[in-house]
Design a protein that fits this description.
Aspartate Aminotransferase, domain 1, 4-stranded antiparallel sheet, Aspartate Aminotransferase, domain 2, 424 residues, globular
């Protein structure tokens, strides 16, 4: 069935909102997306029908426990984990990363090396820098090429050495939109026995995640980037989790996944994660029939989720193409990322750019007055913004179309931006 943008938009109540009688165009999606009805319905049900702590002999507690298991299982399908007990949840990606640095600290000694990248979000940088400071470790960097807007992986064999114990890298940049060849990085890390940690926050809404194919040891993402609540999802290999020290209360179980659950989880957030992933499933089932034969899901649920991701991405990238072409046509602008349509397979739909005469914050303020939501600044990606020489210039203007946006909304933004540039 042909992708029906009107049916998709009907699933999102927030898309009906207005500001000063103007429909709001949500183009701020790289920072956080709106949620569909099924997420709201399941979160409400969690607070009404499953509102009890776990371990009780009564029905509400048992129903809550079933909900938690269901959240683990569908998240396992999303990332292609072998075992749902390899999944656990936290407040967000950054919080989970800080948590895992505590556990991994016990595997490290002074002089060991951690490899980071100049393209990563601060959530996958600062926790490791603090760990290195605490344990007297050495930080090494995979560079960001300011001409290609991609990581320079040409010298991995010199950056990743026998002293390397952890390699932390993002799957896609929240500034340049570039997709990292994580399999190449993981292969280099595994050759020296290093643990690989993948930040998939920006990639998760735009690409199929398969931790078995990647070969990584840990992967983390946040559901509020893909139509769910503010909650992080962590996957890690069972064999690794079983060995790591967990920071937990004494009465907490040593069994997975409870071992890394630090307290009572947000049951409503887990219900929302189920709803978000069921939304992928719905899109795949409703519109992705033409993709099913090419997908290798191990069951119908996973195949539908993967088809949903692919169908959404096709729509996203059509809008990204329209956006990039329109921005490039406006004098004084520069795309901070891959702008050649023939290379779009190496990027997601997150589009950043600058204008030689206008501060990013001023553009974002102008758009806000017109009901167009976008972001400006460093977007918590301090390393790439510094590497690209944009920190003292206010960072970037960032626009991120997703599967519920329309070509009309992109035109609306482009027309407003062109008017701003011409009339200033």
């Amino acid at each position: 069935m042909k992708y029906d943008i009107n049916k998709v938009r009907a699933e999102f109540p927030a898309l009906k909102r207005t500001w000063n009688d103007i429909p709001i165009a949500f183009l701020d999606n790289p920072a956080g997306t709106q949620v569909p009805n099924r997420v709201l319905k399941l979160m409400n049900a969690a607070l009404v029908d499953y509102n009890a702590n776990l371990g009780g002999f009564f029905k509400t507690s048992q129903d809550a426990e079933a909900l938690v298991i269901d959240a683990h299982k569908i998240a396992a399908e999303f990332v292609n984990a072998y075992d749902f007990r390899e999944i656990f949840f936290g407040q967000n990606m950054t919080t989970l990363t800080f948590m895992m640095t505590r556990s991994l600290a016990h595997t490290l000694k002074a002089g060991d090396e951690i490899v980071l990248t100049r393209m990563d979000h601060e959530g996958n940088v600062a926790p490791w820098l603090l760990l290195a400071e605490e344990k007297n470790l050495t930080i090494k960097w995979i560079d960001l090429n300011p001409d290609t807007y991609e990581l320079d992986l040409s010298n991995l064999d010199t950056v990743i050495t026998e002293k390397t114990k952890i390699v932390a890298v993002n799957y896609a940049s929240n500034i340049t939109g570039s997709i990292t060849d994580v399999k190449q990085v993981v292969t280099a890390a595994k050759a020296v026995g290093a643990i690989t940690y993948i930040d998939a926050v920006q990639y998760a809404p735009h690409g199929i995640i398969d931790v078995q194919d990647i070969g990584c040891d840990m992967l983390v993402c946040s559901s509020y980037k893909f139509y769910g609540p503010h909650q992080g999802i962590m996957w890690a290999r069972k064999s690794l989790l079983e060995k790591l020290k967990a920071y937990k209360v004494r009465v907490s179980s040593d069994e997975l996944p409870e071992k890394f659950v630090t307290g009572t989880e947000s049951r409503e957030a887990l219900a929302g994660i189920i709803g978000a992933l069921e939304h992928f499933e719905w899109v795949g089932s409703a519109f992705g029939g033409d993709l099913q034969a090419a997908l290798s899901g191990r069951n119908e649920l996973q195949s539908d989720i993967q088809a949903g991701v692919r169908k959404m991405t096709q729509h996203d990238m059509t809008l990204a193409d329209q956006l990039i072409s329109g921005v490039k046509s406006i004098k004084g602008t520069k795309i901070i990322g891959i702008d050649d349509k023939n290379s779009f397979s190496r990027r997601v739909s997150t589009v950043s750019f600058i204008h030689d005469k206008h501060h990013p914050d001023d553009v974002a303020k102008y758009m806000a007055k017109r009901g167009i939501s976008i972001w400006s600044g460093h977007n918590y990606a301090l390393e790439p913004i510094k590497r690209l020489g944009l920190l003292d210039k206010g960072g970037v203007i960032r626009v991120g179309p997703t599967h519920y946006n329309t070509a009309g909304e992109i035109d609306r933004f482009l027309n407003a931006f062109e008017d701003y540039v011409k009339n200033d």
